[in-house]
Hints:
Layout: H1 5-22, E1 23-26, E2 29-32, E3 38-41, H2 48-64, E4 68-71, H3 78-90, E5 95-98, H4 107-115, E6 119-123, E7 134-137, H5 141-156, E8 161-166, H6 172-187, E9 197-202, H7 207-217, E10 223-228, H8 231-244, E11 249-252, H9 256-264, E12 270-273, H10 276-292, E13 302-305, E14 309-315, E15 321-324, E16 329-332, H11 336-339
Parallel strand pairs: 3-4, 3-5, 5-6, 6-7, 7-15, 8-9, 8-10, 10-11
Antiparallel strand pairs: 1-2, 12-16, 13-14, 14-15
Helix pairs in contact: 2-10, 3-4, 5-6, 7-8
The structure holds alpha-L-rhamnopyranose.
Amino acid sequence: MRVSVKKLMLLVCAVCALFLSGCSVDGGEETEDLSDAYAFVGKNIQNTYMQRMYEGFQTACSEMGVKSVYKAPEAITSAKQIEIINELTSGGVKGIAVAANDFDALSDALHDAMDKGINVISLDSAVNSHSRQTHIQQADPEKVGRELVRTAYELTGGDGAIAILTSTREATNQNLWIDYMKKEVEENPDKYASMPIADIAYGDDDLMRSVSETERILRNSDIKVIIAPTAVGIQGAAQVLAEKGSDVKLTGLGMPSQMSQYIESGVCGAMFLWNPVDVGYLAAYTLKALDDGTITGAAGDSITTPMLGARNVVPAIDGGTEVMLGDLLRFDASNINEWKDQF
Ligand code: RAM
């Protein structure tokens, strides 16, 4: 193949531009230029839900003309997230939005970031109120927990034990939803007399582990319904129930793009979510408002975004504040077609 000198020069320029825009060289090794970026820290890298949130985060950052970076550990642990946060802090980012793998464990790292003038918020899964300026809350956690149990009742006619297939033991968001699931059952003893929560299984937001935990759950023939409040877990559970032709019912939180086949085939009668892209989008605009000083993250503040309009900062149940995205969306056979290409 013959390449003209002009084409070769263009190619060299393009490579240089790419290099200068994202990287710098340090001791012979390439290091990423993080300065002034808004950083998104996900729970784990292979989690598609995290990637969808980052899409919205990135869209907002390009609308605002801010550089964005996506970081997430291979393993869903707080130790790895601490390493990432420390790197971001020393790299000079402007803001950090983290979906936390633990409520308290990230505190020191996040305090260090805030002490250096970096704005810190959590999204999806909160850190404690002292380690953030505010939190982006996808939907009212009480509604999420109660609605999932009510749907399990609807799918089984109120007969048969419940197994919860969640993510990790430390996940703030899942644990809060599970607390409200327990409340729903405890506060309505007559309604749920034949529907005890008999098992809580941890799939660690890993598809294979969610599959094997579902197989274990199914060995208990009292279990008639699985509630999986995680987009990874519900997929693993659906896969197993479909393969086995099981009549155990399934509900939870899932992405229409990943679950449509199981909703269409009846394996999952109904599930819920919100738009994960919007969660990330709102997070980036919240960082910008903190950066510009138009908000401090206190209750009563308000954030305006081009695509979602305005959202208020309100008191959160953990004593801090949060920005509520909106309501739960329900997906079932009647509407899954409209949603499956969206997220
Ligand atoms: C999983 C994650 C995430 C949660 C969604 C619904 O992908 O655990 O934190 O919000 O599910």
